[in-house]
Amino acid sequence: MTTPDHKMTPSEEADANQLKLARREGDAYQEALKYMANDVADSGQLQRSGDYIIGYAQEKAEGMYELRGEGQLEWMEPTDENCHLEISVSDASDGRFLPYIKVYATLTGQGETVGPFEVPFLWHPGLYHYGKNIRVPGDGEYDLRVRIEAPTFMRHDKQNGERYAAGAEVTFKNIPVKTGQG
Fold this sequence. Notes:
By secondary structure, this protein is mainly β. It has a single domain (16-177), classed as Immunoglobulin-like (Sandwich). Helix content is 14%, strand content 42%. The protein contains one helix and eleven strands; from the N terminus they run H-E-E-E-E-E-E-E-E-E-E-E. It has one helix spanning 16-40; strands spanning 43-49, 52-59, 64-69, 72-76, 83-91, 103-109, 112-118, 121-122, 129-134, 140-148, 168-177. The strands form three sheets. A five-stranded antiparallel β-sheet has the order 1-2-5-9-8, covered by helices on one side. A hairpin with a 2-residue loop joins strand 1 and strand 2. The longest helix has 25 residues, at 16-40. The radius of gyration is 17 Å and the shape is globular. The two termini are 26 Å apart.
């Protein structure tokens, strides 16, 4: 598993204590991510790509709340979806989760290609991530290609903020996928 490299330096925008606190936040996020990928999900891995750590976790399709109107959440069970794919994008310097990223995934295996499809942000009580229920042909090994676009959010800090100027693409080879509904 990949770990953050912690190369940020104090600047006019962030003092040493702020950077230390950011690294602690990132360390906690990475610990939760590794727990999900290694102990909770059916399979999961991390890869470093430039400014990013990109990870995935795969589980059976699962129900989720969807907003149907102001103050109206509705629990939605999966219909024909049999795979839940979770993608994490975090900062390779401090390990913190990166929000507002456009994430796309493609699974290839069992003689078919599923995707590319967008993987939206998904709130989870234990770990922010991007996630989606999808339908795949069945259990087996797949190649997972994850592509992220460069984020459009502004970046503070002249010393440390020149980052995320490019997107990234990684491929996880021969990942085991277990299908079903949980």
